[in-house]
Amino acid sequence: MLAIALVLEIISGMVLALRYIPDAGQAYQITSKLLGEGGWSVALNFHYWTSYVIFGLVIIHMLRVFFSGGYRGPRTGLWQIGVGLAGTVFLLSTTGETLHWDERGFRGPLAHLGDL
To answer: What digits encode the pLDDT tens for the residues 60-89?
Structure first.
């Protein structure tokens, strides 16, 4: 499931890159314009929510391996690589949150906790 979500995230990001202009001064206006258009709104929201699915799947996988003891013995090196990859996913999600260029983006990586 994680591999499928990663492929979908990359594809939706490439589709959005066709229309999105990476200008920090106009980021909010460009994003709000895309949200106002039907098809681009779907692509933007799909990309947004797929990132949360990836983050959740990584956390679930890490917890499963931890509680089952799969990190012991000869698999210690794999566990360390997995922790590094999970950290990379966390850092990527943090940079994605700061791209909002609104009050949510300025709150940083814990901004989604306010939505709960």
So the answer is: 999 998 899 888 888 888 889 989 998 888
Distance CA 6, CA 89 (A): 11
The model carries a pTM of 0.71
- Residues 71, 4: Cα–Cα separation, whole Å: 24
> Residues 69-88, buried b or exposed e (16+ Cβ, 10 A)?
eebeeeeeeeeeebeeeeee
Tell me how long the chain is: 116
Cβ atoms of 30 and 21 closer than 8 Å:
yes
37 Rama class: left (phi>0) / alpha (psi -120 to 50) / beta: beta
Q: CB–CB of 11/47 below 8 Å?
A: no
Q: Is residue 25's pLDDT more than 80?
A: no
For 64, other C-beta atoms within 10 Å of its C-beta total 10
